[in-house]
Every structure is written in structure tokens, then in C-alpha cells.
Amino acid sequence: MHLKINQAKIGYNKTLISNADAHLNLGEVCLLIGNNGVGKTTLIKSILHQIPLLNGEISINNKNVKSLSVKEIAENIAVVFSKSIVPQNYTVEDLISLGKYIYYPFYFELSKKDREEVFHIIEKLDLVQYKNTLLKNLSDGNLQKAFIGRALTQNSSVIILDEPTTHLDEKNKIIILKTLRKLAQEQNKLILFSSHDWRLAKEFADKIWYIKDGHLYSGVVEDILLQHEELTNASLFQINDQFVAPKIIAPDFYKEMLYSLLQKNFQKDLSALNFEFQNNFWLISGSSLQCQCESFQEIVNFVKTIY
Ligand SMILES: Nc1ncnc2c1ncn2[C@@H]1O[C@H](COP(=O)(O)OP(=O)(O)OP(=O)(O)O)[C@@H](O)[C@H]1O
Asked: Residues in domain ABC transporter (predicted)?
């Protein structure tokens, strides 16, 4: 079982992503990242065939999603959108039971076997004490888990989640991400999820799909991070147009501190300077100058004397 994107052109009247090629296998967790508006949700909807491709093919298990009925797609892929409508007067158990709906033709009463399975999923997600709690009284973290529970009862091999960690605090983010990883490993699910908290999320993913400049880059997390400097440098925000960073050789934490210090204090091009951290002092050098500074205050004072 695998999900394959083959030479796909994705978008609406306007193309958002061209020549997308990527594939995922069962048991893998993939993080989908990219700036606002690059087309993450559109890609997810294209996989579900809710938005037709402009070109190319997306297939599940070698079957083009275009040829699958809505029911067949639901049997293969469960989806959790971040902006899901919350049926306020449903209990956690009601919501999770809904995942079984695709297997029943009409208004239904769950079979004993399905009820047991729903309970088993409630247990697995650590939601037993909230089983009968109304969704409107649930914390955001537990509500998110309940939506994941609904996706699980669907029994599909693929689970896709659009920003499952939005609005959650750090603790709940980690609970959700750990749950996803565990599902992939223990139940051999293929999990694709998008996130803006990707620095944390990448710790739980095997692969990254990264959308940038209309292109989909896919691969093992560490390969993609190495190939795209802007991802690992993302903490060095450019907030000052006139600032050009000097060359900084230092451990990441020191590098980031020096970068923000200089950016805040100098609207200048500092590219002629080199800063090298030497354990207990900074060595600053330029074409005809050299200086040692032991604190950031000294650095600011020194740079002010040259600019
Ligand atoms: N039905 C539609 N018809 C035409 N354009 C659309 C439609 N839906 C979304 N778009 C546009 O497609 C672009 C990508 O939207 P999409 O929601 O896929 O981005 P995203 O990467 O998920 O963004 P975000 O991170 O902000 O959620 C946006 O410019 C959006 O306005």
C-alpha cells in the first residue's frame, strides 16, 4: 500500500504546484510544510480528489484517486481538517463513532463489535474519562484527539491531518505528535500531516514534503533540511531590510544571539566583518582590524566605533 504523486500539477485556475513527484509507504509519517498560501490544503484536497488535478496523477495502491468513488476514498483515507465543524452537543463517544458511518447505509445503531472497537480507540487515546463529555466542554487538545479518534474508527490505512497541532500548547502538541507516530509504527498507518509548528513536528516525522516556489520537495526529513538552508536558518529572522549579516562562526545558540543583537542595533551591511566565537570571547576581524570582545555589550560598543 502506498500513496504516489506522479507529475502532478496542482491548483485552481492558477497553478500552485507543478511537476510534483512524491510517494509514501505504510508505516511512514510525513510532515507537509510551506508558507501560508503555498497550497498545502489544496494538495490534501487533491489527494482526496475533492479538487481535480490540472495534470498528472495521484494514486493509492496503484489506483488513480480519480477512478475511486467517494466511499472508496473514505475507506482508504481518513482526514482531519483543522477547521472541522464541532457538533457541540455530541459526546466524545458520539464523535468517534461517526468514523464508522461510512460502513452503514442509513441512520444506524452501531453493532456490538463496532461499539467495542470505538471503546478500544477511546482507551488508546486516553480519553476514557471524557467518553461522555460534550465536545463543547472539552479542552482543545482532547477535542483534537477526539477528531483523530473519529479518523481511526474509519479503519483506513492512510490518515491525513491538516494542521492537527494548531491552537494546542506544547504539552498537547507532543501528545498528538506522539500519538501519530505510535499509530504509524504500531498499526502500520501512513500518516501525512501539515504543520506550522514544523520545528517540533519534524522530530516525529520520517519524511518531509516541502512546498516552495511552486515546487514540491520530498524526502527524508534530514535530507530536506540539509538541502534547504532557509529551513534550518529560520530562527534568523530578517526584520531589518538594510541589515546584512556578517560571517558568524559559532554554535547555533550563540550565532542566533549575535545575529539578533547586530540586526537590532545596526541598519547596516556588516558583511565585511567576521565573528568567531572562541569559548570565552569573540574574535572580530575585518580587512584591517581585529578585536576581542568578552560580552555582547562590548561587541555593540566596538561595532559602533567602526560604523
Ligand atoms: N476554491 C478555490 N479557488 C481558487 N483559489 C483557491 C481556492 N481555495 C484556495 N485557493 C487559493 O489557493 C492558494 C493556496 O491555498 P491553500 O489553502 O491550499 O494554502 P495553504 O498552504 O494550506 O495555506 P495556509 O498555510 O495558510 O493554510 C491561496 O492563494 C488560496 O487563496
From this structure: 1-238
Distance CA 248, CA 228 (A): 19
Establish whether residue 38 lines the binding site of ligand 1, counting it when its CB lies within 6 angstroms of any ligand atom.
yes
Q: What is the pLDDT of residue 100?
A: 81
Q: Are residues 205 and 73 in the same domain?
A: yes
* Same-domain check for residues 41 and 148: yes
Handedness of CA 133, 191, 81, 69 (dihedral sign): negative
- The domain boundary residue, chosen from 230, 259, 277: 230
The DSSP line for 99-145 is GGGGG-SSS----HHHHHHHHHHHHHTT-GGGTT-BGGGS-HHHHHH
The atom number, within ligand 1, closest to the CA of 11 reads 12
The question of ipTM being above 0.95 is answered as: yes
**Residue with CA nearest ligand 1 atom 11:** 37
Please give the distance, rounded to the nearest whole angstrom, from the Cα atom of residue 213 to the centre of ligand 1. Answer: 14
Q: Tens of pLDDT along 150-198?
A: 988 888 999 999 998 887 888 888 888 888 898 899 889 999 999 988 7
Mean pLDDT of 62-69: 93
Report the nearest atom of ligand 1 relative to the CA of 38: 21
Measured from the Cα of 42, ligand 1's closest atom is 18
Q: Is 133 in the pocket of ligand 1 (CB under 6 A)?
A: no
Q: Are residues 115 and 145 in the same domain?
A: yes
Domain count, the chain: 2
Max avg pLDDT among 67-76, 179-188, 200-209, 211-220: 211-220
